[in-house]
Amino acid sequence: MKLGKRIGQGYTAEVFEWGSDKIIKVFRPHTGGLMEYEWRISSQVAGLGLPVPSVYGIEEAEGKRGIVYERVAGPTLTQVIAAKPWRIAQAAGQLAALHAEMHRREAPGLPKQKEMLERRIRETSLLSEDTKARVIERLSRLPEEVRLCHGDLHPENIMMTAQGPVIIDWMTGVSGHPDGDAARTRLVLDYASLPPGMPKPVKLLFTALRRQLCRTYLKEYIRLTGSTMESIEAWLLPLAAARLVESITEEERGKLLELVNRQLNG
The Aminoglycoside phosphotransferase domain covers which part of the protein (predicted)? Predict the structure, then answer.
């Protein structure tokens, strides 16, 4: 079977049409075993009864190998918010409800959350060895669980289909503590940089919308799960340090370094 039209691309992979109702995610040569890693996670998650794309297998076409997924049609939750900002409270409620439902599942077979965070903290070159040790020590004190965690849940990873919301991009999925997963969502909503070419008025609007989305999401998530703001925020330090190894802007990197220093020395 030949690759269809390319419909998306990123640093690690390209996405092509695969027949009329599927897509194939083809990984770039430099990614090593990332395809098998994502396949293992996506396959386990697909069996847990959540609204996620079906995953069919690994296929080869035109000398390239990739994972075949169900094609999910619809706008992202980000696009819905941009088109109807007055419905942001509803969007925040959907995000919180999906996250709370996810965290009711156990996933002991997935990579461990705290091990993944520690590995990333050790990899960054932006922190001194002493600072890394202090962050890791704080991480070691945090509670452990074996709940299903997405590792990067935010509105861009939720597709709003005709059948309801679908959670995509499970490559960061781990087994861990729900508070850490909610804290990651809070970190992205509060600190992730907007596209650099965005006009200033639009950027100001989106910044305000994200802050409101974050506040409302956290309030609803806490109501649904019985968690607390304090237990969620306890995860911000290791999450901020671990995010420093990701492909983020200089602006966001600076904000995260300030957060790490403030958490350690404040």
Answer: 5-185
**Alpha carbons within 13 A on the beta-carbon side of 50:** 28
Q: Which residue has the tokens 């009711």?
A: 104
Residue 55, token pair as written in the block: 């995953």
The 10s digit of each residue's pLDDT in 215-228 is 999 999 999 999 99
Helix (H) or strand (E) holding 200: helix 200-225
Q: By the 8 A CB rule, do 159 and 74 touch?
A: yes
Concatenate the DSSP letters of all residues of 215-249 into one string. HHHHHHHHHHH---HHHHHTTHHHHHHHHTTSS--
Secondary structure in 3-state letters for 138-196: HHHHCCCCCEEECCCCCHHHEEEECCEEEECCCCCCEEECHHHHHHHHHHHHHHCCCCC
Q: In terms of residues, how long is the chain?
A: 266
